């Protein structure tokens, strides 16, 4: 019998390791374009890094789906098409928490448009919110460095809604990969 806690934990750790690896890869690839001051190169590098990250998640999830298909066919496991979606949500829990905290703190900054970075010199309560928002966005941008070129190209670097939106492709890649592996003949 397979210990699902060990299996789920291992899959979540692999997803986090993939994200950590793509963080460094994204920094290396996009910094080349930033240093050359070429926005087109930065965007292309960022898109390449994002697609490569999605491929890694898709492949990891499809392998899990293939191994689960064997267990489902043998009757040792019930079919659960949402398993990898839940695992991906767990792996992205830090990203979701940072994005939600950045969005909530951005709402308390009164004199700054929602889509702009927090400004310096605001009143004390909004200044605290601006500090929280800046810290969350900085950590998130470090973790998801692969998206920086896309955000710069769209001019949305200070908009915290994109922090939440960029989680959706990784969850979708995991879900689709798992369903692909689970349904493969």
What's the main sheet like? none
Q: Given the C-alpha coordinates, what overall shape results?
A: globular
Terminus-to-terminus distance: 23 Å
| Helix-strand string | HHHHHHHH
Helix content: over 70%
Q: What does the oligomeric state look like here?
A: single chain
- Number of DSSP helical runs: 8
Report strand %: under 5%
Low-confidence stretches: none
Radius of gyration: 19 Å
The average pLDDT is: 83
Q: What is the count of β-strands?
A: 0
SS content category = mainly alpha
Task: Give a written overview of the molecule.
There is one protein chain. This protein is mainly alpha-helical and 185 residues long. Helices cover 76% and strands 0% of the residues. It is built from eight helices and no strands. It has helices at residues 4-36, 39-74, 83-91, 93-107, 124-143, 148-154, 161-165, 168-183. Helix 2 (39-74) crosses helix 6 (148-154) and helix 2 runs parallel beside helix 8 (168-183). It is globular, with a radius of gyration of 19 Å. The two termini are 23 Å apart. The mean pLDDT is 83.
Question: Could you give a short description of this structure?
Answer:
The protein has 8 helices and no strands. The protein has helices spanning 4-36, 39-74, 83-91, 93-107, 124-143, 148-154, 161-165, 168-183.
């Amino acid at each position: 019998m397979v210990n699902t806690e060990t299996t789920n934990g291992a899959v979540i750790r692999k997803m986090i390791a993939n994200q950590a690896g793509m963080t460094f890869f994204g920094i290396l690839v996009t910094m080349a374009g930033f240093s050359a001051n070429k926005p087109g190169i930065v965007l292309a590098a960022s898109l390449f890094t994002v697609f490569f990250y999605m491929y890694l998640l898709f492949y990891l999830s499809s392998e899990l789906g293939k191994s689960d298909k064997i267990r489902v066919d043998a009757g040792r496991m019930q079919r659960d098409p949402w398993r990898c979606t839940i695992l991906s949500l767990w792996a992205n829990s830090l990203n979701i928490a940072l994005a939600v905290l950045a969005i909530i703190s951005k709402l308390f900054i009164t004199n700054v448009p929602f889509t702009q970075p927090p400004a310096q010199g605001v009143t004390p309560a909004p200044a605290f919110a601006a500090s929280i928002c800046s810290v969350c966005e900085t950590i998130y941008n470090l973790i998801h460095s692969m998206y920086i070129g896309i955000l710069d190209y769209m001019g949305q670097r200070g908009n915290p809604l994109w922090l939440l939106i960029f989680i959706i492709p990784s969850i979708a890649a995991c879900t689709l990969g798992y369903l692909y592996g689970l349904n493969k003949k």
